[in-house]
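FAQ

Q: What does a record look like?
A: Structure on top, sequence underneath. For example:
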């Protein structure tokens, strides 16, 4: 599977460690930055959007995002229509984000979780399978919200 990685200035080391981890597991990893903060700041909506758009245009299948909390970068990714990005700080939620929510992206906070926990989170996310079944219509209902607003039929 091809996976896109993105982070802001707080997540560069964690992104690199997670990319190395995923490469070892046989995943093809594509880096959408930030590459080197050079002591500067990289605004999290930029990499969040890039990875989400790469998924929607088929460049990669899934994504891993890191910012300070995992929150801002996931909020940005979730603004790309069709994308479901889940912030997780432990592996159980990460597995369920795949199993129940069919999330495209796992997002983590470099200021919240340590690297070993982050590796366990991505493992749980990628080693799980979407269960569909009773979850499918709820996932469709999320898309329906976007569609209602796009069509101007939201109430
Ligand atoms: C950057 O200081 C920080 O706000 C960002 O990494 C992230 O935590 C936002 O959600």
């Amino acid at each position: 599977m091809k996976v896109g990685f993105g982070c802001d200035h707080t997540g560069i080391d964690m992104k690199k460690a997670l990319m190395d981890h995923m490469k070892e597991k046989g995943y093809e990893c594509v880096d959408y930055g930030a590459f080197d903060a050079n002591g500067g700041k990289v605004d999290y909506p930029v990499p969040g959007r890039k990875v989400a758009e790469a998924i929607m245009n088929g460049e990669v299948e899934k994504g891993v995002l890191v910012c300070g909390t995992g929150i801002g970068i996931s909020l940005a990714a979730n603004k790309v229509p069709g994308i479901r990005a889940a912030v997780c700080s432990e592996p159980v939620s990460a597995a369920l984000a795949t199993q129940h929510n069919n999330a495209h992206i796992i997002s983590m906070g470099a200021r919240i979780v340590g690297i070993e926990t982050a590796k366990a989170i991505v493992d749980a996310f990628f080693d799980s399978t979407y269960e569909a079944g009773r979850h499918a219509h709820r996932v469709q209902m999320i898309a329906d919200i976007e569609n209602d607003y796009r069509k101007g039929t939201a109430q």
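Q: Is there anything notable about this one?
A: The chain has one domain: 2-151.
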